[in-house]
Amino acid sequence: TTPALPAFQYPFEVRLDCSEAPDLAAWAAQIPDLLERWWPVMAEMLQSEGFRAPRSVNLALKKMPGIAYTSDGIYCSDKWLRDHPDDLGCLIHELVHWQQRYNGGEFWVTEGIADWFRYFIFEPEKGRFHHLNADKVDYRHGYGEAGAFLDWIERTKGGEFIRRLNESMRRRRYNDGVFKELAGDDLPTLWQGFRDSLK
């Protein structure tokens, strides 16, 4: 398909396809500024030895159910963007997936890191997952709940925990034992500590 907007370079090539949603070309026009600000931050925070962040991506706005997903490129729902034109966070979440390059791995960690960057780095002012019910939260749900848990470990244990967890996933070396190695306590102990902090 022919991109509705020209490809641009910063800091990598993005090929934008608005052919199924030409009315969203104006929305897509803000993506260069978004990436100029956030792609380098993301690359720095998710770096690992020997890994080079991708230098190109296909981004398409499509008629599809749901919100967005990442496979051989990033695909965003035209309906969602029309109904939620301020939701740049959904694109940030998918860009994290584009940088993760896990080729499998633990679902809740994959989605937790993506939502951690979205809600605790990109748009912390929204505070969507900053106040959770200790009796209902479950990191295995992934997404924001897992992101809040990972953020708590990052803040309380330090040591670049999330960057190192990301590296273990990228190298396909993840198992629950990495929590003891990277944060000093096993996963159940950390989880209980996080739930206690919510109370």
Strand order of the largest sheet: 1-2-3-5-4
* E-strand count: 5
| Molecular shape | globular
Q: How much beta, percentage-wise?
A: 5-15%
The description of the largest β-sheet is:
5 strands, mixed
Structural class: alpha/beta
Q: Unreliable runs, pLDDT <50, ≥5 residues? A: 1-10
Radius of gyration: 17 Å
Our measurement of the CA-to-CA distance between the termini, rounded to an integer number of angstroms, reads 52 Å
Please count the helical segments: 9
| Range of helix content | 40-55%
Task: Return the average pLDDT rounded to an integer.
Answer: 90
Q: What's the order of the H and E elements?
A: EEHHEEEHHHHHHH
Structure description:
The chain contains 9 helices and 5 strands, in the order E-E-H-H-E-E-E-H-H-H-H-H-H-H. With 199 residues, it is an alpha/beta fold. The chain has a 5-stranded mixed β-sheet with strand order 1-2-3-5-4. Helix 2 packs across helix 4 and helix 5 (107-122) crosses helix 6 (143-157). The protein starts with 7 loop residues before the first strand and ends with a helix. Residues 1-10 have low confidence and may be disordered.
Explain the layout of strands and helices:
Layout: E1 8-9, E2 13-17, H1 25-28, H2 31-45, E3 56-62, E4 68-70, E5 74-77, H3 78-83, H4 89-100, H5 107-122, H6 143-157, H7 161-170, H8 178-183, H9 187-198
Parallel strand pairs: 2-3, 3-5
Antiparallel strand pairs: 1-2, 4-5
Helix pairs in contact: 2-4, 4-5, 5-6
